[in-house]
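Hi Q.,

Before the meeting this afternoon, I wanted you to have the magnesium ion prediction in hand. No need to reply - just skim if you have a minute. The sequence and ligand are here:
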Amino acid sequence: MTEPLIALKHLQKRFGKQTVLADVSLTVAGGEILGLIGPSGAGKSTVIKTALGMEVADGGSAAVLNTQMPNRQLLGRIGYMAQDDALYEALSAEENLRFFGRMKGVAKADMATEIAHVAAVVDLTPDLKKAVSGYSGGMKRRLSLAIALLGDPELLILDEPTVGIDPALRRKIWGELHKLRDAGRGILITTHVMDEAELVDDVALLLGGKVMAYGAPSMLEAQYDVQTIEQVFLKAEGVA
Ligand SMILES: Nc1ncnc2c1ncn2[C@@H]1O[C@H](COP(=O)(O)OP(=O)(O)OP(=O)(O)O)[C@@H](O)[C@H]1O
Ligand SMILES: [Mg+2]
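Predicted structure with the ligand bound:
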């Protein structure tokens, strides 16, 4: 069996006196989409940042691409989309894509094709020459996603990638994510859109610093005796 792309074991993270992650274990294998869900403030972004070594864990271990994190060398092989857009506002979208493409080691000869491809996936082709400062919130999200997709990384880590994105384009983006998954890429994605949580292979529900439910959507729905992941979420939270 091949090693998972992400392996978090009993991860713990505190901020001051607040324990945000008490015990988080999860894995993402190649050819798998793991959806990380949980209420706002549950620690989803903290899981991602700790996995990537952007936050230092207080306990447990985080291995990404078989390497103990943090490790700078790896970042070129990971398509990471943060929850907050980190874009160069004064530059055009195309210039942003070229800059990040270079950082990720996209070959010069492939750059134009790569940029055209990722821009098409997020429907930004007509707006590539516009300065990012003139972009709407949803356009910035789409550009951040395009940047994460650059260079066809083996692992995608996407923190709320579809915020501010219309249903039709969201569907198209999920089509692309499934294509990448079928081509063997691993994807860790957080979302607040509960019907998106039906489109993943496994769901991990983060609650009270722990993974309270973990498995295929259909399995969790059966386990909680409900019809949708939204109902699993509400039942686990004790709301329903
Ligand atoms: N750098 C930090 N310093 C102090 N507290 C932090 C820091 N980062 C996160 N926290 C706290 O950790 C908790 C979890 O935050 P996190 O951003 O991981 O939640 P989340 O599940 O991603 O929420 P959302 O769905 O709103 O994005 C929150 O209470 C937050 O205030
Ligand atoms: Mg978050």
